[in-house]
Specification:
By secondary structure, the chain is of the alpha/beta class. The protein folds into four domains: about 160 residues, Alpha-D-Glucose-1,6-Bisphosphate, subunit A, domain 3 (Alpha-D-Glucose-1,6-Bisphosphate, Chain A, domain 3); about 100 residues, Alpha-D-Glucose-1,6-Bisphosphate, Chain A, domain 3 (3-Layer(aba) Sandwich), CATH 3.40.120; about 80 residues, Alpha-D-Glucose-1,6-Bisphosphate, subunit A, domain 3 (Alpha-D-Glucose-1,6-Bisphosphate, Chain A, domain 3), CATH 3.40.120; about 90 residues, 2-Layer Sandwich (TATA-Binding Protein), CATH 3.30.310. It contains 15 helices and 22 strands. The strands form four sheets. Strands 1-5-4-2-3-6 form a six-stranded mixed beta sheet, sandwiched between helices. Helix 9 packs parallel to helix 10. The protein is globular and about 70 Å long. It starts with a helix and ends with a helix.
């Protein structure tokens, strides 16, 4: 029987992910495949024969893991539709358009030795700890000792299907660039799946593209495919300046996140992109709900309201965003981490759709308009970025911060996700910070924002002093 501690380490809040083969093995993938079918079911949305659609990124361990997972699925009498190499949002497209549950084999932005499985129900609805993963983990543990119970159904079959072209056509239908002015764009795929999807999606558009690291290589020979780390954007920033490009785009390993660099080589804050895309979606769907997590900039809800929309604040994490989108009918959702969610895309996240929105917004402006000038109206505050500190007793430190800041006139506290403290200075300038514990590590994560750099730095340093006083 598998060690329960191994499964606790491997099956996380939102997906299965670990080092190959130390943690994640083909044997475990086979058990996950069989358990996935038992927990989620596999009947098609139209009531037709059951199947599971699978895709994988470029990591060398992917084919063996996919093959083992497929064995587990087909052992339960369920077919496999294998779309081969794919970005995560391409897998979501497949699950949504085919009306099937799906499994994407990727470790996203993690280093080369990792791999994982992102699971979804029909219509790209996520499978997390509270929506099936806990039950899947329980079955995997049980069956690792007893074996998978035999199915009365005949074994399922495996069919390959190429959906890259259909995926590209669908995205271009959602955000057409046919009327865009010509743009010069540098794209850094980081040897990840952007190198697979970008040529298909952006082909034939009025774009002069300079590609960086489009070769699919799961060993990441140039830099990690993790654009949230500024070090991994250095090549893109240099290439934008060298080419005199209008902007740069960076994708993570499975290309479900997009980061943008302006014509000066400056990183565009994901909150700024959230505001930009929200305004564009509200122009198409007036009065709609826009979701933002609680550590996006305070500018986001301000701008949503100014454009006639209703901002809805959620906890951090895609399962919370997608669930709240379903409950409210929200047209769009954005996170500080570079994930952007679209109602017209089964409420799933797509880095490519975010990129298309950015290109379209700039392409619709007069020649000579720069991305930095276009985005200036959305940049109202200065943020600290996320600062992590190792803390032995996270809740004790949060309680100390809570006691320090409240109750106090003009200061509000809430505990939707960790502790958020917000207020205003004497001149009316707003500030806020959030401290929340990591779900998987003994860390406290601090995000702070204020009207300018000096006020933000003072706020950040005051809170960090308390946190580090309780650090281990």
């Amino acid at each position: 029987m598998l060690d329960p501690a191994l499964l606790d380490r491997l099956i996380k809040a939102y997906d299965v992910r670990g080092v190959v083969p130390d943690d994640l093995t083909p044997d475990i993938a086979r058990l996950v495949g069989a358990a996935f079918v038992r927990v989620v079911g596999a009947a098609a949305a139209d009531g037709g024969p059951g199947a599971v659609v699978v895709g994988r990124d470029m990591r060398p361990s992917g084919p063996a893991l996919v093959a083992a997972f497929a064995e587990g699925v087909t052992s339960q009498g369920v077919d496999i539709v294998d779309i081969g190499l794919a970005s995560t949002d391409q897998l979501y497209y497949a699950a949504g358009s085919l009306g099937l549950p799906g499994a994407m084999f990727t470790a996203s932005h993690n280093p080369a030795q990792y791999n994982g499985i992102k699971l979804c129900r029909i219509g790209a609805s996520p499978v997390g700890q509270d929506s099936g993963l806990r039950e899947i983990k329980s079955l995997v543990l049980e069956w690792s000792g007893t074996g998978v119970p035999a199915s009365e159904a005949a074994p399922g079959s495996i069919a390959e299907r190429d959906l890259l072209g259909a995926y590209a056509e669908f995205l271009n239908g959602l955000v057409p660039l046919s009327s865009s002015r010509p743009l010069k764009v540098v794209v850094d795929a980081g040897n990840g799946m952007g190198g697979h999807t970008v040529p298909a999606v952006l082909a034939g558009l009025p774009l002069e593209i300079t590609p960086l690291y489009f070769e699919l290589d799961g060993t990441f020979p140039n830099h990690e495919a993790n654009p949230i780390d500024p070090e991994n954007l250095r090549d893109l920033q240099a290439a934008v300046l060298e080419a005199g490009a209008d902007l740069g785009l960076a994708f993570d390993g499975d290309a479900d996140r997009c980061f943008v660099v302006d014509e000066k080589g400056g990183l565009v804050d994901p909150s700024t992109l959230t505001s930009l895309i929200a305004v564009r979606e509200l122009a198409k769907h007036p009065g709609s709900v826009i979701i933002h997590n609680l550590i996006t900039s305070a500018a986001v809800p301000e701008i949503v309201r100014e454009n006639g929309g209703t901002p809805e604040r959620t906890r951090v994490g895609h399962s919370f965003i997608k669930a709240r989108m379903a409950e409210t009918g929200a047209v769009f959702g954005g996170e500080h981490s570079g994930h952007f969610y679209f109602r017209d895309f089964w409420r799933a996240d797509s880095g490519m759709l975010a990129a298309l929105h950015t290109l379209a917004a700039l392409g619709e402006t007069e020649p000579g308009t720069t991305l930095s000038s276009l985005l200036a109206e959305y940049e109202r505050y200065t943020a600290s970025g996320e600062i992590n500190t190792t803390v032995a007793d996270q809740q004790a430190v949060i309680a100390q911060i809570k006691a320090e800041y409240g109750p106090r006139e003009g200061v509000s506290l809430d505990e939707l996700d960790g502790l958020t403290v917000s207020g205003a200075d004497a001149d009316g300038s707003r500030w806020w910070f959030n401290v929340r514990p990591s779900n998987t590590e003994p860390l406290l994560r601090l995000n702070a924002e204020a009207a300018d750099e000096a006020r933000m730095a003072a706020l950040r340093d005051t809170v960090l002093t308390i946190i580090r006083g309780g650090a281990s």
